[in-house]
From TrEMBL, chain A:
<dbReference type="InterPro" id="IPR000873">
    <property type="entry name" value="AMP-dep_synth/lig_dom"/>
</dbReference>
<dbReference type="InterPro" id="IPR045851">
    <property type="entry name" value="AMP-bd_C_sf"/>
</dbReference>
<comment type="similarity">
    <text>Belongs to the ATP-dependent AMP-binding enzyme family.</text>
</comment>
<keyword id="KW-0436">Ligase</keyword>
<feature type="domain" description="AMP-binding enzyme C-terminal">
    <location>
        <begin position="327"/>
        <end position="397"/>
    </location>
</feature>
<dbReference type="InterPro" id="IPR042099">
    <property type="entry name" value="ANL_N_sf"/>
</dbReference>
<feature type="domain" description="AMP-dependent synthetase/ligase">
    <location>
        <begin position="50"/>
        <end position="268"/>
    </location>
</feature>
<dbReference type="GO" id="GO:0006631">
    <property type="term" value="P:fatty acid metabolic process"/>
</dbReference>
<dbReference type="Pfam" id="PF13193">
    <property type="entry name" value="AMP-binding_C"/>
</dbReference>
UniProtKB/TrEMBL annotation, chain B:
<dbReference type="InterPro" id="IPR036736">
    <property type="entry name" value="ACP-like_sf"/>
</dbReference>
<dbReference type="Pfam" id="PF00550">
    <property type="entry name" value="PP-binding"/>
</dbReference>
<protein>
    <submittedName>
        <fullName>Acyl carrier protein</fullName>
    </submittedName>
</protein>
<feature type="domain" description="Carrier">
    <location>
        <begin position="3"/>
        <end position="81"/>
    </location>
</feature>
<dbReference type="InterPro" id="IPR009081">
    <property type="entry name" value="PP-bd_ACP"/>
</dbReference>
Length: 402, 84
């Protein structure tokens, strides 16, 4: 029985311990295509208590018919709210195997092989907490919260369905939440929309991950929650959880680079890219994992600023960095959120274009923001078009593709 | 498709320059190099036109030309609109 069996989990349809979840007689190798956190939690509990199981959990909406058929051909039965569809290939279950679907930024999500053990990254005792889990079912970050609650006594979880995300601060306050993990976009949106309710939540732990974490959002959270420990975590379904920083500063100390410590991943920067070697990596990822994330050493810190492939904007032969422009916009006192992209234009091929959301009550014109950027950036990096949006956009992954 | 008049485009061109503390002279023969209207400014102007019309201009359509004066810019934008 997992050590966290008595921990309380709360969904829109269930409030009780892990051990109280009702299980059914599902095939040993199953892909659970779920519509709710409750069905996902039941699949997890079955996996955690029946060692012979092989499990994939994903939001039903993420898996199209062709991929579902591929699961069946690969030997997984489909378990949906309305019934079970058997696999088309018979084979014994790969005992203990857990399959994750990556966020699939290009094309169809791909499967990554894990186990409960490789997904469990927090194993030391923690103070009792009620966690908020806003992540999509089956995502790597979702598994992080779930495995922590399964393995560590005192770690209760409130799951929020995607349709309830707008009102999570009220639900969290009512449920007694004291800890939460979310993307910087998730936190920015919450501060923007519901800052007053948010400030009433007695957070002891605030965790960020899934996107580059900038100093601006860390400072906003510190101001809103002066008592909380504020952490950011670098993790991916391929590399596992590799970096955890708790000092309230963006980036991680440069002296962590190329350091060999037992049980810890080795971090390197190669040609401006973060490279990780970790024993928490997915199966088949035993060597150096090139993360595709841009890493920059500034003074005593290593800052992770964006994706290499999408960061560079070629403006008439000059290379503008979308993440740098974004950082400058976010440093403007009136800007709550910013996204920077290239936009096709005559003569120079592309120009830098931005979308921003202003802080509640703040005012700034696009000309003022351009002037702010012009004082801090080379000419070609200044956004030539700035669109002011009313709301911070957020996808099911809690990210906003900035 | 709706198009913007030469005067409307001229006004936008003035806005691009004004954001940099520069002024657009009334004379169409004014040299771009003298008023400090550069490639990036031209690109921004084209995007302002696109946004105003809510359509994409076909930047590849007009052939090669020499754009040296304010009048050249206005003519080129006009041709971009006609070609789209």
């Amino acid at each position: 029985m997992p050590a966290g069996a008595a921990n309380r989990i709360v969904t829109s349809r269930y409030d009780g311990p892990w051990s109280g979840l009702a299980l059914e007689d599902w095939p040993a190798a199953s892909a659970y295509l779920v519509d709710s956190h409750l069905d996902a939690a039941r699949a997890v509990w079955a996996h955690a208590t029946q060692p012979e199981r092989e499990t994939l959990v994903a939001s039903a909406g993420r898996v199209d018919a062709e991929q579902a058929e591929q699961f069946r051909a690969d030997g997984l039965a489909l378990v949906r709210a309305d019934g079970i569809t058997p696999a088309t290939t018979e084979r014994p279950a790969d005992a203990g195997r857990i399959w994750l679907l990556t966020s699939g930024s290009t094309g169809r999500p791909k499967q990554v092989a894990h186990t409960l053990e490789s997904l469990t990254t927090i194993s030391s005792p923690q103070p009792p907490r009620m966690w908020l889990c806003p992540y999509a079912t089956g995502a790597y970050a979702w598994w992080q919260v779930v495995t922590m609650s399964l393995q560590l006594p005192g770690q209760d979880v409130l799951f929020v369905e995607p349709g309830e995300l707008d009102s999570w601060p009220e639900r969290a306050l009512a449920a007694g939440v004291t800890a939460a993990s979310g993307t910087p976009t998730f936190w920015r949106q919450a501060l923007f929309r519901s800052g007053d309710v948010l400030a009433q939540i007695p957070f002891e732990q605030v965790t960020l991950g899934g996107e580059p974490v900038d100093q601006g959002v860390l400072d906003q959270l510190r101001e809103a929650f002066p008592q909380a420990r504020i952490s950011w975590i670098y993790a991916s379904s391929e590399a596992g959880a590799a970096i955890a920083v708790h000092d309230g500063r963006a980036g991680f100390p440069a002296n962590w680079l190329d350091r060999h410590t037992a049980g810890r991943p080795v971090l390197s920067v190669v040609d401006g890219e973060l490279v990780i070697r970790s024993d928490k990596a997915a199966r088949g990822m035993d060597g150096d994992i090139r993360t595709g994330d841009r890493a920059e050493i500034v003074d005593d810190r290593v800052l992770i600023t964006g994706r290499i492939a999408s960061d560079e904007i070629n403006v008439g032969g000059s290379k503008a960095s979308a993440s740098k422009v974004r950082a400058v916009l976010l440093a403007h006192p009136a800007v709550a959120w910013a996204s920077v992209k290239g936009r096709r234009a005559p003569l120079v091929g592309n120009v830098v274009a931005a979308e921003v959301v202003l802080a509640p009550g703040a005012t700034a014109t696009d000309a003022e923001l351009q002037a702010w950027c012009a004082e801090r950036l080379p000419d070609y990096s200044v956004p030539r078009r700035i669109r002011v949006r009313d709301e911070i956009p957020m996808k099911e992954t809690l990210k906003s593709d900035v | 498709m709706t198009t913007l008049s030469r005067d409307q485009v001229r006004e936008m061109m003035g806005e691009v320059l004004a954001a940099q503390g520069k002024e657009l002279p009334a004379n169409d023969d004014a040299q771009l190099s003298e008023i400090g209207f550069r490639s990036l400014d031209f690109s921004e102007l084209a995007l302002r036109v696109e946004d105003e019309l809510d359509t994409e201009l076909n930047f590849d359509a007009p052939g090669l030309r020499s754009i040296e004066t304010v009048g050249d810019v206005l003519t080129f934008i006009d041709q971009l609109q006609q070609a789209s």
